[in-house]
Write a structure and sequence with these properties.
Length: about 160
């Protein structure tokens, strides 16, 4: 491994960690302000009604989801819609981490868990969501597009 590769990968790892933390902060802030839509179908309904209010789409999967053809078709359609409507998209792995960040209760009563495969961060028209985390994640998405990586990927790590 060359020095350039070593230094470059270290910088990339630090960038990914900071963007991951910013994403977690953003999702918590959006949930607190009721600007977070959770679930593939709920997200599709919202984007059909008011795509202009969506500022970020997070598509989350884990290893076991790669063989779910229906989910992959939904993701393809959502990604196309987001690209057509200039909505930032971020692919992440770590559904359990998303559930922890968003305070999903443990499933002790065998109730149906929430679907964290698709999350939308929205801006309320009367009170737009303004936080540094939204800017950081948006900048990361834009930087990725400049590098021809149209749908950036993050791996959320357990703390």
């Amino acid at each position: 491994m060359t020095l350039e590769e070593l230094v470059g990968s270290n910088i990339t790892d630090k960038k990914m960690d900071s963007v991951s933390k910013a994403l977690e902060e953003l999702l918590v802030a959006a949930q607190r302000q009721d600007c977070l839509t959770v679930g593939v179908y709920e997200s599709a309904k919202l984007m059909n009604v008011d795509p202009d209010c969506v500022v970020l789409c997070v598509l989350a999967t884990d290893e076991e989801d790669h063989d779910d053809i229906a989910l992959q078709i939904h993701f393809t359609l959502i990604q196309a819609f987001c690209c057509d409507n200039d909505i930032n998209i971020l692919r992440v792995s770590g559904l359990r981490r998303l559930a922890q960040v968003l305070g999903e209760p443990t499933n002790e009563d065998n109730s149906e868990p929430r679907d964290f495969h698709c999350l939308l961060v929205t801006n309320a028209q009367c009170q737009p969501l303004k936080c540094q985390a939204l800017k950081d994640v948006g900048n990361y998405c834009q930087e990725s597009r400049c590098k021809n990586q149209w749908i950036p990927y993050l791996s959320l790590q357990e703390p």
